[in-house]
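User: I'm preparing a small set of examples for a lab meeting where we compare how different chains pack in three dimensions. I only have the primary sequence for this one, and I'd like the structure in token form so I can line it up with the others. Please keep the answer compact; I'll paste it straight into my notes.
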Amino acid sequence: MIIFFNKSKILYSLLGFFTAFLAVAQMQSFDLKEVRLNDGPFKNAQDVDLKYILELNPDRLLAPYLIASGIPVKAERYGNWESIGLDGHIAGHYLSALSMMYASTGNTELKNRLEYMISELAICQEKNGNGYVGGIPQGKVFWDRIHNGDIDGSNFGLNNTWVPIYNIHKLFAGLYDAYHYTGNKKAKDILIKLGDWFIELIRPLSDEQIQNILKTEHGGINESFADLYILTKDKKYLETAEKISHLAILNPLIKKEDKLTGLHANTQIPKVIGFEKIAMFSGNKKWSDAVQFFWKNVTQKRSVAFGGNSFAEHFNPVEDFSGMVKSNQGPETCNSYNMERLGKALFLDKSDVSYLDFYERTLYNHILSSQHPEKGGFVYFTPIRPNHYRVYSQPETSMWCCVGSGLENHSKYGELIYSHTAKDVFVNLFISSKLNWKEKDIYLEQSTKFPFENNTDLVLKLKKSKTFSVNIRYPKWAENFEIFVNGKIQKTEIKPSSYVILKRKWKSGDQITVKFKTSTHLESLPDGSNWSAFVNGPIVLAAKTSDKNLDGLFADDSRMGHVAAGKYYPLDQAYALIGEKEDYVAKLKELDKLHFRLDSLELEPFFEIHDSRYQMYFQNYTKEQYQEKHALLKQQEIEAMALESKTIDKINCGEQQSEVDHRYKGEKSESGYEDTKAWRSTRSYISYQLVNKKKSGKLLEISTIDNFKIDTITILINEKPANIVSLENKVMSLNVDNIEEINIKITAKTTRNSPKFYQLRILKN
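Assistant: Understood. Below is the structure token output for the 765-residue chain.
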């Protein structure tokens, strides 16, 4: 008997004689310890990640926690982000990575490290005496101010402290994962005490004050309290989760309003994961619908071919992806890390296979590609700018957020290869692996070389014959989808993005073979512009273009070390498609498995491209368009390159990482997005630090969105009044000749908002 499954209904068919509809049982994931990877690109990525994990020193990661607790350190803390305000955040990710990698591999060194770190954190918590444990610099003073209602929040600075709740959320998540994946009871104890401390911290605060705190990036702290509810079933944690959910993001989603443009992307996605988990336990349909609206908006309108979204960390306008095409700061890996977590949660909650289409696309093309497959190291930004490249972290120098999430990404590939209901198995991804469902005495091994070969074999090993369903995902990209059981083809009448369900009495040794075809097509950017990527099945193809000028390929510990800051190659010199798109697909000549010749280029899976500049997106012109539009692009590139060539340093005001990297401080400051630009204003002061390398810059340009009224502000450079050279067209020029380190402070003279500043730029002339 063959059964067909599609989304929330199951269609039973017995040789065509009868049909009936039944509700789908709740989908569940397997524990990571029940799935093991076989040889292939994912197993390799897991092994490389394991090596990176073991190269990190737990005592150095723990140092911020000991410092904050007044305990002598055992090793010097790491530098980079771990020493400039985000002290301790990697340790939380590290707990998660240790826990998941141990569950995925059984490596005992990982468990030993985990238990050691948990024990050290317990000592810190006991020393603090109030349930708190964290690495936030000057944490006692900071948290006392919050408890007393002294709150000044902006998008990433809370009382001039860099995303402190985001920071501590990583510890919440790491402690939860330590218990969830390894059963570490001490981690659970620390987590509950930490949660109770946080509840007491915010107890005196009004709802308005709490929402003010939530203006600052805070990770998925609401999800952490939903997790505490899972652990304890104590409703106070679920109530707290609801209380600390950011209404400025939630309410527009409930109304089906898209207010995301200009927002820091990865600030929002974890909040939505929290909304989803809270909705699942509270039964709040409005919240659940809001989450699905967000999912559809981001995956359909804001994501590029490889699954990533945003540039320079912010959501760009849905109708204009030109900023992303031009930028060396393309989609951030953390965004995809969190979109994968959201996709998994929705798939399990809704039992809807369609969520796996995006999950799979992002897994192969962004997550898998974001780690160097030989030398190790994690990618922060993946530019889609033609002929640019990516930078890889190093264990001793790089402590970025995408290192933390990167440690986790490659430790949990087994999480959704399979799933199950009460008694049935679902095969979701074609990845070579073994499933050992001890509870049901079902062992399944999947052998495949996908995506390089379009088939997979599944062999069952059972202690005794038994009746259950094996459900095979029919992906939306698959063509000529066929399933064989013990060599006999099975009749199917279903559509892509659904399951073929094979229900029978299985015996040990039974074999299921899945065969399909894939084809290549050109996929346009969501804004409908003339940029397209080649995609074969779920695999994005790209071309290596050059191995020159790969400045900072393996990152140092500089503040901008995560950005591929090497030479821009002009966009007008990139390969373009002239004529009909279909003609270029037809012109592809297959060289090898998933390798194609396109005139002088060789297209290959993007996840295989490393140590090279590349082109993923191609402009497409008709013959009539080419001369005019290409000439315009060339002129734009000449102007852009000329400006960049004389720029020494610049700050994009209101953009989180740009401001952090330039030591932003401020009070009574607001930021926003207007006229395609992020901005910042103040009713008190804002300050930044710029570097005029070799004193080669002569002018500091300050640009605003609104009118520049000099009589409303004062500007100091290195504590002295600025020397104003000119003021016109909303641009002020200051003399910075012969000044190498520039500390600029802008103060509002009245309680009114200052102008909206959007950029500061040091120029050679």
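A couple of notes for your slides: Residues 36-244 form one domain. The radius of gyration is 27 Å.

User: Perfect, thanks.
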